[in-house]
Design brief:
It contains 5 helices and 5 strands. It has 134 residues and is of the alpha/beta class.
């Protein structure tokens, strides 16, 4: 058996198997199966319960608007400062149980000011926040 390996090592080429044709055939088969396979959507019938309430989504989800630029902030049309923003938000949160705070910032609002305002919003306990900019 060792003579076989000695003779094999003497050949500079050794054994070479050309895999190019086999790889081409595998890719053609792969493409064929990908194209010809049909996926079926299985459906499960579900009977969902109906709600007795006729409340629209707009009535149920109230929004509170907070707009800010580099110079001033307005909460529901009332001018507020950074120092009293948290207590104003806490009072609104205690009055309204479910609402979304829409925080809109001006392009000129610096990132540092944005983070300070956002920290006040989070510290007030408000969890539903929508952020937009103009």
């Amino acid at each position: 058996m060792s003579d076989f390996f000695k003779k094999l090592s003497q050949h500079s080429d050794g054994f070479q198997i050309n895999l190019t044709n086999m790889i081409d055939v595998i890719f053609i088969l792969l493409i064929f199966f990908m194209v010809s396979t049909q996926f079926r959507k299985s459906t499960i019938p579900i009977d969902l319960p109906e709600s007795g309430e006729n409340v629209s989504a707009e009535e149920k989800n109230e929004t509170v608007n907070l707009s800010a630029n580099e110079n001033e902030m307005q909460l529901e049309g009332e001018t507020v400062t950074l120092e009293n923003l948290q207590e104003k938000l806490e009072s609104i949160a205690s009055e309204k149980k479910e609402f979304t705070l829409v925080f809109s910032g001006n392009r000129k609002l610096s990132y540092e000011s944005f983070l300070k305002i956002y920290a006040k919003i989070e510290n007030s306990g408000i969890t539903r926040i929508a952020i937009e900019h103009d």
